């Protein structure tokens, strides 16, 4: 077997240790910093200058965890059963975000695949998996992963992931994978020993930045791009969600995201199926999703926290932290995001203490993902509580209607479709006791600073924390969860059957609202989506036939009277 590794930090020698036996590698005479050579096949690790054995930075499999030896994977040997899958584009789709470890009690790819029929009946188009790279222990969110080419073994490893993707494609579902390029986890990260994967030229919330523009960055960019293309090619993912791209510090003329998008488009041509990238970005910069020929970076879409924040404030009344900008007039904030995309499009942001953003092009609402709940917006709360624990079923139905009839690309978080009552808390399973204690103290220190009692903040390392976060699949069979699930299915069906409800042109959206009476009507072609978030019945301007409703309503001339926490979709 031929082994190769980029290890410019090695001074004199690099060896590959295969099943305990060391074999020397030679410097590559063409590629600076690379070492290569042949040795027997088997579980292997690299040894630099006589040091400790370390996993391959490009390890395709870590069967013994992040700190153990690597193992090769023959991707060509997997027998894909659904070879006719040709993908599906992102525009017009509905996404469903899930975490493999808590989607089912078993917490495996195999168990998740057994629940795919639920998603087909719901009507979504794509499953978005939270990160699946290896991390310490069994349980975790996945954002502290390492070995960016490998798959977490407790979930089912490489074979399990391929079987899940294959099963999803057989049922007509695309699969999007969440990947993290902006940092690696604190445990099991051996990259700095090999080369300049990180730089002090920039700093991020996780410390030194990934090296995208300092000396050695060509190889680091190739490392990340190779990982991304591997998910799309070898695991047949349909798209990737890129975590926190605002933390990808890059001063080069061609930004890393532009280079990555270019390579993904080339792979799409080579494989003859649509492939796409979705960014999580805090920049409110439309250039992220502007085509490259128009001067942008060319990603297909980005998450829209502005829409989430506005809608969350309107439904809950919360005003702490970054919700402050939206809570002053929450219905006006919802209207602004539905018609302009960004709330912060160059104006003042009190949370940031400065002006923020630039205008979003109104014709491209589909380039923004709209959502009411995500792993971040639930799990980063002190108790990991979903809004379903504090809102009535009717108010949840109002929120679902505004998301699923919006001009954006809608996304649901697992269990949201039935108003799941289970929390989704922050959990870890660090095997290093010092790191585990540091995470535990840091979590409690963060929230006690916001007024929470330390003993009320769940311990991330406590097994009960992850158990509480597992979906309860008996809930959809019980009221009011069953009614909410039916409502979600109805809204997705309406969106699919009526093109006016998928129209991404923000300029074509008109919103009427009364901030004091707390009602809002969204005009979508001949359709009106009317919600009443007030405490009294409200007569709203929504003439026409009620095609779907949750809660009480009655016609009064050209106005529709909605009971409190009620919603109706009306066709003029």
UniProtKB/TrEMBL annotation:
This protein's UniProt keywords: Carbohydrate metabolism, Cytoplasm, Glycosidase, Hydrolase
SMART domains, A to Z: Aamy
Region (Disordered): 49-73
Reactions catalysed according to its record: hydrolysis of (1->4)-alpha-D-glucosidic linkage in 4-alpha-D-[(1->4)-alpha-D-glucanosyl]n trehalose to yield trehalose and (1->4)-alpha-D-glucan
EC class name: hydrolase
Subcellular location: Cytoplasm
Entries under Pfam families matching the protein: Alpha-amylase (PF00128), DUF3459 (PF11941)
Domain Glycosyl hydrolase family 13 catalytic: 97-445
Pathway: Glycan biosynthesis; trehalose biosynthesis
CDD domains named in the record: AmyAc_GTHase (cd11325)
Enzyme Commission designation: 3.2.1.141
Domain of life: Bacteria
Family that this chain belongs to: Belongs to the glycosyl hydrolase 13 family.
Protein name: Malto-oligosyltrehalose trehalohydrolase
Gene transcribed to yield this protein: treZ
